[in-house]
Amino acid sequence: MITTKGQKTAAVLATMVGATTLATMGTTEQASANSTTMNVEGVYKVDNLVQYMGKWYVVTNPIAIPTVDYNNWIPVDPLTVTDANGKRHANQTLKKGSYYTFSNKNYQVRYNQGENLSLTMDGEPVWFKKSALSGSVGKPTSKPSENNNNNNNGSQGQNVNNVNVRQSGINGYYNGGYSYPALQCTGFIAQILADRGINPAQFQFLGNGEAWARNAQARGISVSMTPRVGSVVSFKAQGWYAGYGHVGYITAVNNDGSFQMAEGNFAGKPYNERTVWVNNDVAGIIHF
């Protein structure tokens, strides 16, 4: 058994089975695709508890969507231990079979489209299946985000300045996910994009780094040779990038036309930053 105030760290893949949802809540329509925060209502049951490197997570299926990384675990810290009717327990100790709520707290919306909802909880992305929540997303509590849209002509989802690029990238580098293996530049970028709330269908299965620009463009995603903050640069399989090419995440654009880039697996490092110019090595710049 554990308390709801656990240590801070990262997590990895979990396979989740069987869940009990114990309350009927608001309608899915209450969750505007443009809202920046919302709450999750209702009482849920702990099917299992998992621990990774000192931090505890709750498994309650099928409310969270199983993916190839740790997004299907719910961090314990934001939860409140209750009885089956949602009344708060004095003893905030969780164990298998306990009941809990999401503490009536508002969580930042990373992605909200169709069946899928992703919220930031305890600093981590958690994906939910709306139908498994019985339509249970609360009313949006803040004004619409101007960056959360469905076009492919610029940054989409969470404001790029609100994403911890370094931490997201390192998580992706070590864990892999979204069709990409661990310890590669592609997994590094994929996790950053996921944490921004971009639909995984846009960046999954784009191939090696050198193929990202070509394959993204084939999907109708805007690709150019103009660097923008939050865009992804794809490098050809030549020179430093011979073999498989490379991808990097643009964090700043300089007045001289160069840009700053965050990347994984450059010289074997999990995280690296450097200044780059658009030249013949660049296959294209992708504006997710």
UniProtKB/TrEMBL annotation:
Transmembrane stretches in the record are none
Database matches in InterPro entries: CHAP_dom, Lytic_exo_TRD_sf, Papain-like_cys_pep_sf, ZoocinA_TRD
Superkingdom of the organism of origin: Bacteria
**Full protein name:** Lysin
| Coiled-coil zones | none
Residue ranges annotated as compositionally biased, kind Low complexity, are 145-162
Known Gene3D superfamilies for this protein? Answer: 2.40.50.670, endopeptidase domain like (from Nostoc punctiforme)
Residues annotated as domain Peptidase C51 = 160-288
What segment(s) does the record annotate as region Disordered? 134-162
